[in-house]
Amino acid sequence: MNEIRDLIIGIDFGKDYSQICYYDRKGEEPCSVSMKVGAQEFEAPTCICRRGEHKEYTIGLEAVYFAREKGGQMVDDLYGICKKEDSVQILGEQVEPWELLQVFLKGMLKFLGVADLVKNTKCLVITSPELEDPQVKNMEKACQAIGFSKNQYMLIDHGESFYYYSLTQKRETWNRSIGWYSFHQDEVKFQQLTMDSSTRPVLVRLEEPKKTVLPSLTAPEEEGEKAVEARDEAFRDFIKETLGTGLFSSIQITGYGFSPDWAKMSIGSLCMQRRKVYYGNNLFAKGACAAGKERLEDKILKGYRYMSPALVLKDVGMEMRVMGAPAYYPLIEAGKNWYECKAGCELILDDITELVFVVGTFGEKHKKKVIMGLPGLPERPNKTTRLSLALAYVSQKKCRVVVKDLGFGEMFPSSGKVWDELVEW
Questions:
Q1: Which residue has the higher pLDDT, 53 or 404?
Q2: What is the rounded average pLDDT of the residues 381-405?
Q3: Once rounded to an integer, what is the mean pLDDT over residues 394-407?
Q4: Residue 65 pLDDT
Q5: What's the Cα-to-Cα distance from 323 to each of 57, 280, 356, rounded to whole Å?
Q6: In 10 A of CB 330, how many CB atoms?
Q7: 87: burial class by Cβ within 10 Å (0-12, 13-18, 19+)?
Q8: CB 3.0–4.6 Å: which of 146, 288, 414, 419 could bond 407 by disulfide?
């Protein structure tokens, strides 16, 4: 590495393999980090191994070695474990998912070879195939346990990582649509990244995926060249079906199952109309790194908005008195991913026994009011009931609202009442 301060780091936390990269400020691009000294091996198996006698954890390639040669308990479904809240048993001890994830992330970060890493990191961006509520909570706890503050890390899914990677490349590779073929052995998924330049900002979307299953190279009914030809023909037909007559600047191919060795006819179809074709598995880690650089420093994509399926499309606020004057107090702003949408405040009730939220929808002028009742609220003189209010989205449409009675000093102690609702605005 040629710098150790203001690091921007991207980690692709995948189901089977993970990668890490950093932004190379001299080369002005994300740079992958090898998992093995002296080798161009950038992927680490997403697993950890605990050795009982030493009570030590190893990760990735080292974990595979120790589990095979030295004994110890292997955790090879780390990705699946981190999508749950349940603890797991390792050598007789109960361990929380976020604790295992913390071990793995710390192990990945060590490959950067930077002392006092947290202090010297400007932003850590973690990307995963998808993000669900338990997974997000485990990632946040793991990052905070390592020492990162909330403004030092961010989470994005593979779709958003693909967006940032694509639009931070040379303009000629994305001035039209971009095609994306994602392989998982015999299954292939295609998505198209499109841009609506008639709007301001330009709205960028990943269209709904199309899928197919290719003939296996190991299918018993096919042998040798016949198996290769059948797979190549099937993929070529899928290319014609998905690309059609559309105009594409570039095609990206990711995953495991594609090889130029068998895709002779397919490559010809991909390269038609002078389309640029790229194949590799470092796209998501580099896209995560590019996201951190773009959001925190460059901001050259401010004229574009990625319409992620995780995007919250509702503004949420309240009408209240702030510093004695009536005002609208914003809580949640539309246009952010649900796992970034959290808000909280304290308020004092003034001649009301319920909360009224003002909700607006992205792109619409009309706003509606949503009332949240507070049954069992203690009766007190006006302006002597203080409440804490916390909002946190748990999915793209569902928001958890938690209200706590804080009382009012020694005069009116807290009743301990808590109101907890899951709301779809």
A1: 404
A2: 97
A3: 96
A4: 93
A5: 53, 56, 19
A6: 12
A7: middle
A8: 414
Alpha-carbon radius of gyration of the chain: 25
- Cis before residue 330, ω within 30 degrees of 0? no
| Both structure tokens of 424 | 């779809």
- How far apart CA 120 and CA 252 sit, in angstroms, is 33
> Around Cβ 280, how many Cβ atoms within 10 Å?
11
Helical (H) or strand (E) element with 421: strand 418-424
Query: In the chain, how long is the greatest CA-to-CA distance?
Result: 86
Tell me the whole-structure pTM to 2 decimals: 0.92
Rounded Cα distance between 87 and 423, Å, is 28
Q: Which residue has the tokens 């925190």?
A: 296
Which 3 state secondary structure label does DSSP give 58? Answer: strand
For 303-319, the pLDDT digits (tens) are: 999 999 999 999 999 99
Neighbouring-strand partners of residue 317: 330, 358
Contacts of 61 (CB under 8 A, 6+ apart): 35, 36, 41, 44, 45
Which among 220, 222, 215 has a CA at the least distance from the CA of 266?
215
Q: What is the DSSP letter of 214?
A: P
- Rounded CA separation 75/81 (Å): 9
Single-letter amino acid code for the residue at 188: V
